[in-house]
Amino acid sequence: MVCSELCDIVEGRTLHCYIVKGGNPDSLVWTGLVDMYAKCGKVESSHDVFDGISDRNVVCWTSMIVGYVHNDCVEEGLVLFSRMRDALVEGNKYTLVSVVTAFAKLRALHQGKWVHGYVIKNGIELNSYLVTALVDMYMKCGVIAEARVIFDELSANDFVTWTAIIVGYSQCGYPDEALKLFTDKIWKGTLPNSITLSSVLSACTQLNNLNLGKLVHTLRVKLGFYDASVTNALVDMYAKCGAMENARYLFENFSHDDVIAWNSLISAYSSNGSANEGLMLFHRLRSEHLQPDEFTMVCPINLCFPWES
């Protein structure tokens, strides 16, 4: 439904009324409503529609499970998956992607392995999304070697899976592996997206690799990725690598309305002994009526009472 893609809940509810008044819609129409409400964040409404469907097929069950997992109601999604199996409805590869994603969010390695075994045992086709979900699950559960085995054997030079494992390496404390994969000549012709670049910049930050970070910055300009995640990662990378002028330039021109960038810069001033600049920036944040988070509030304490004292 167009309302689903636009997340237009008002138009979606209006359409729902028309459907009810029209009488006797089939399960495909009801499933579309389940999907629409879930994508608009209205999980309870989605569940109400789902409960009213008498002839539920695998697409209907999957839409509701996907809706739960997408809205971080992972336990509810897994309970529904269990109910689906009790109803003797076999899940398809799209169902399993959401189930693996749910186990990844819960860091439930044993259950995630069960799904992996179920896929192999039943000869289910491993598409890009299922491979990526498995890689992500193993990464988040700390089983890095297994994630890499799946990637090497099944990714078939898939961009989505490539990005997922780079993100995983960066988040799990393996920045050198993230950069090796990013610069591997096998992937030379692959254009990264903003998620890839943010994770690569995080890896550069962890390794204090300013030179590669600058090259990634150049690539960001060429590709035109000016979204907040990449800009914040750049500010953080320059600040933690000691290139404060670069960090301040990006901050002032691209990201001064984002509290994450403020945190990176204030923290860097604290680390390099520029307490006055850090405190001035903190007071400026308050004067511009930006909402500080927990990390922001710790920064001025570190500025006033550094560990060295």
From TrEMBL:
Keywords from the UniProt entry: Repeat
GO molecular function, one term: RNA binding
Pfam families in the cross-refs: PPR, PPR_2
A GO biological-process term: RNA modification
PPR repeat start and end residues: 26-60, 158-192, 258-292
Protein name, UniProt field: Pentatricopeptide repeat-containing protein
